[in-house]
């Protein structure tokens, strides 16, 4: 019963909305994201330059984000490599990793119908009033997003970018929040075990500054105009060859 | 007092306090992860020490939320005296209280005591098996809280009931059952308020009955 009382019809609708890979939209974006030598699809996560050295050799791991207020709670935030520049706004270092989504339970929050299901679930939660009507909303929303993912054992949520920069992020892109589980079915923190061999593969020639508290990230150099064609394949090949792609104008 | 934690206070605040911004939170969390990875002793030093009631002021409330969750992956629950001191200090910080409750009811040692028993009779409050939670319930329904009239105590009991209903794991539901079963002057109002929360959830009729039955309030007059 974790997550408070929920009407049976809503509970059933949410269960029905969760796809088990390879069914559903993750398969669609994964199939456009290149593969590692073992055929696993690829993701990219941009991190600040200071952490780049952690991913120059084998052994680095992507870190699970615990920051309150993140879009879908505690998890590892990545972009499928089909969207190679989409999350560059978070750092100059593009870390590429493979992942095996076999049998993952995926909630596609890019779909308005699924967004409506989540909101309906949210509004029925005992602490919803606190989340909506107090100054602590970041904490409550984090808590509720985690509870939702725990209750329905959601391995990954797909969602549209909620931070932007013209020329890099498109509103039609897809980002992913990925869950690492503890044995008891709650969400763990620390290093993510979901991603294989994260490696520094992309160096970006751009810096960004926050506007609107980071919702908009203004590019300072504005060297990149549009998305270079073939970049996903180029990055995937560089990842396989242990090389680095420099994304320039 | 835990001196190491006091020294780390500012660092942990930058990891867990959203006021510093996402960039700072993420950077400090990454730095901590890197330190722990490169020197496993760091983990033991930071996560291992016992916490005393006078440690409550060592960290900000934001840092406590983050730190206790982080620590729970490797360390057992802090002692009840510390948990109680922090819960009381967080009287105006419901987010901290909710996280503390989740931490306690989710602890493996606590969960093991509560195999799923949908129709178990309510524990008398004085016999509830988790001492820290038992004390919280007792305080909520106590007849002799100095300076608190019944309406104020109802607010406190309802706050606890709200958190327990939100968590709705086996431990929380049994605790809520005990809270609702305890006779005290505010009980009737508390039962009504919990029933109202179930009504807001818009449950189907049979599910509503099942929840009320589970909580031991089925058939009570409004």
Task: Note down, in words, how this protein is organized.
The complex is a heterodimer of chains A (249) and B (222). Chain A is 24% helix and 21% strand. In chain A, helix 1 packs antiparallel against helix 3 (112-123). In chain A, strands 1-5-6-7-3-2-4-8-11 form a 9-stranded mixed sheet. Chain A has 6 helices and 11 strands. The mean pLDDT of chain A is 90. Chain A has one domain (8-247). With 249 residues, chain A is of the alpha+beta class. In chain A, a hairpin with a 4-residue loop joins strand 9 (208-211) and strand 10. By secondary structure, chain B is mainly alpha-helical. Chain B folds into 2 domains: 1-79, no CATH class; 113-222, no CATH class. Helix content of chain B is 64%, strand content 0%. Chain B contains 13 helices and no strands. Chain B has helices at residues 3-7, 9-16, 22-38, 40-47, 61-72, 80-89, 94-106, 108-111, 131-141, 150-167, 170-181, 187-200, 205-215. Chains A and B meet through helix 5 of A and helix 3, helix 5, helix 7, helix 10 and helix 12 of B.
